[in-house]
Amino acid sequence: MGNSKLYRGSLHTIILKLLEEHGKMYGYEITQKVKEITKGELNITEGALYPALHKLEAEELLDVEIAKVENRLRKYYKLTEKGSIETESKLKELEEYIRNMHTLVNAKWSI
Length: 111
What we know:
Pfam families: PadR. Helices cover 59% and strands 17% of the residues.
């Protein structure tokens, strides 16, 4: 995934948040939306995305819907009720992490 190891720990939260906002999305659409939102700064590879989607599905946080689009089968992912609850929890956890990191980075360290 992307440009930094720091993003790896946030991949599930990114996916859950996008699905919360957009209802349902397919894998390539997720990668392109992240690229668009971050103005190309963050690129999620298929090698990182699909294992994450499969893990979230196995944890019953995502449902899969298969649709035929232009004679091809496309797998759409959407949040389950459990996934919606987990999204809220993960977003709160991420906000707390960001707040704590901001505090630490901007601290005046006395020696």
